[in-house]
């Protein structure tokens, strides 16, 4: 029987006697963090530090001009929660954000399902539906304020088709003004939601849909059991963007109603602007801004927590 010999290490590759082998360096573990240091530094300098400094002034009586000020504790926040206009603005902001988030996502998803077909004109419709997104929100708000005026195109169209009884001062009625703004927001930004949902739809493997069809799933069952669960990521992103955008809504409100009539469309953002630059009450406006920041952070965190792993 032939003898077997263990492989021997060549003399030039052997470690010198009494010397420990060199340690292997961990490559690619800590190095990537150094690349984000410049971006984090700029973000801290431009966003975090000014925001923290501004939040500090919410506990003072600083009037925005004089260099001297003193701490007043929670007096500004007590004034915020005892002010009727601020409370109305908070309710209007939550209502607007909820309505815009729900309707915009439903419309955006329906548009995405429509333009995801194989019809030849699908690219034309994608451009048409996305076109309002590129408009400046302030400009779009002014355009819709003319459309919804008592003698605007909307009421003229209703009168032209024999529905003049439905003609209305949409922005002058406290019962309809806020929802008219929601309509404008949905019209302008549904195309943005459509693009996100369309990307999610195109990422669904065709084999999965074919397998569902072979199993006998109908159109609604396929959408409910297959498509919607695979769109969970797109739903989370869209809902969060819509919610945050609705909670800090300012441009369309100022362009269409200015917060009126009365306080029917007053939002936290418009109340902050008026308190600071119209009334000169900077401590109150800063405290209101802190409240808005906390509300946005809490609701965004709750929404993300509830939807990131939700199975539809």
From TrEMBL:
Query: Which stretches make up the ABC transmembrane type-1 domain?
Result: 90-303
One Gene Ontology term of the biological-process aspect is:
transmembrane transport
Q: Does the keyword Transmembrane helix apply?
A: yes
Q: Where is the protein found, in the record's own terms?
A: Cell membrane
Q: What is the protein's membrane topology class?
A: Multi-pass membrane protein
Q: Which family does it belong to?
A: Belongs to the binding-protein-dependent transport system permease family.
Q: What is this protein called?
A: Sugar ABC transporter permease
């Amino acid at each position: 029987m032939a003898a077997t010999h263990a492989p021997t290490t060549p003399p030039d590759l052997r470690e010198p006697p009494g010397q420990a082998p060199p340690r292997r360096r961990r490559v690619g573990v800590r190095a990537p963090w150094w690349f984000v240091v410049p971006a984090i530094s700029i973000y801290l300098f431009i966003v975090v530090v000014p925001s923290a400094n501004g939040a500090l002034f919410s506990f003072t009586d600083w009037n925005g001009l004089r260099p001297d000020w003193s701490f007043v504790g929670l007096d500004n926040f007590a004034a915020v929660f005892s002010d009727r206009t601020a409370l109305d603005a908070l309710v209007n902001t939550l209502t607007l954000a909820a309505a815009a988030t729900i309707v915009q996502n439903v419309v955006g998803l329906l548009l995405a399902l429509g333009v995801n077909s194989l019809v030849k004109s699908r690219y034309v419709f994608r451009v048409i539906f996305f076109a309002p997104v590129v408009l400046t929100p302030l400009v779009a708000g002014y355009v819709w304020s003319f459309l919804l005026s008592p003698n605007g195109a909307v009421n003229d169209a209703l009168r032209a088709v024999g529905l003049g009884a439905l003609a209305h001062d949409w922005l002058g009625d406290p019962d309809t003004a806020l929802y008219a703004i929601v309509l404008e927001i949905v019209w302008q930004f549904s195309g943005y939601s459509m693009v996100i949902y369309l990307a999610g739809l195109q990422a669904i493997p065709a084999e999965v849909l074919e397998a569902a069809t072979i199993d006998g799933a109908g159109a609604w069952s396929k959408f409910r059991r297959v498509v919607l669960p695979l769109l969970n990521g797109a739903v989370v992103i869209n809902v969060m963007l819509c919610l945050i955008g609705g909670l800090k809504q300012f441009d369309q409100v100022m362009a269409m109603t200015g917060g009126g009539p009365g306080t029917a469309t007053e939002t936290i953002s418009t109340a902050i602007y008026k308190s600071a630059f119209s009334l000169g009450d900077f401590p109150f406006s800063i405290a209101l801004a802190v409240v808005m920041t906390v509300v946005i952070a809490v609701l965004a965190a709750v929404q993300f927590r509830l939807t990131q792993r939700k199975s539809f």
